[in-house]
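Sequence and fold:
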Amino acid sequence: MRLVRQSRRAAALGCLLAAALILAAPGHSAAAPAITVAVLDFDASGAPALGPNGGVLAGELLAAALSSRDGVHLVERTALRRALEEQTLGLAGVVDPATAARVRRLVGAQVLVAGRVLSVGNHLLVSARAVGTETGHVEAVVAEGRPGEDLRALSGGLAEKIARLLSERGEALAPGRAPTRTAEAISDLARELTGATLPRISIRVRETVLNVDEPHSVAANELISLLLAANIEVRRSADPGLPVELEEYLAKPEAPDGADVVILGKASGQFGLRTGDLVSARARVKLTAVDAATRRVLAVAEAEAKEVDVAPREAAVQAIASATRELSHDFVLKLVRSWNSKASGGSADLRAPAPNR
């Protein structure tokens, strides 16, 4: 009997040890804290068949679909409506960052979701914007229904896209929250940089959207998310007067503020074409990494992308984000390897990493 008990105890201890090893394994982490989301009424004036309350219905259906998603904590719609009415804020459709910050103070939401419903031929199209109430960062998604598909079915697909967006871009929308990232590029980059000395990086990106200067660079946010996930210290320059052109930077002596590498960038999103209710936009992003001590160029990358939305600005912003994601992994890998090569006096191995097998 004693041997049986000892055997059972050993088995239990073995199970506990295995569980502890799994939890301690690289890449395994506790679930990220939920993001508090407030879903506003949508603007359904572009879909008259939905009736005068179509926008309210769109908000209700989306909130119901989001309520079952992991990582999302919803502000109760009745409480939200009451708070907005008390402050005489009638919000529907597009919400600017300043208004989003005001709503955060009222109901504690970290992200506001609003948008438009359009009738395109014999199907519906919904464009939604998620606005970070603290950062003013904006992300957009579009869901297009099949012919004859009703708003309820379309809301489920839109909720899935928004939940994925909150998971992948949660840190940009709600800073200080440990994001759950699904992009393999981030984990790949951290693995490929194992053993390398990581530089402290300062980022300066000048961005224009539809020929208007953007105070909050989408390209910089994308790059910062990747760098932080790879455990690289980032120092973002807030001074808009700092140079972003290589020649201008090399000609202007300045203290690097403790940064080892300076990333200079330019991003622009331009209107493309309009087809019915949809518009396309194209973007171009160029990044240059410079050694702050030696002024040696470590890496240069450039990419273009196109995106489609119902609003020109949202399409341009999405295109900038897509172009930045396309180039950032290889760009960061190259700059870190090149910067590390100076310590050994050799040249960095800048070949593309071997694919996983």
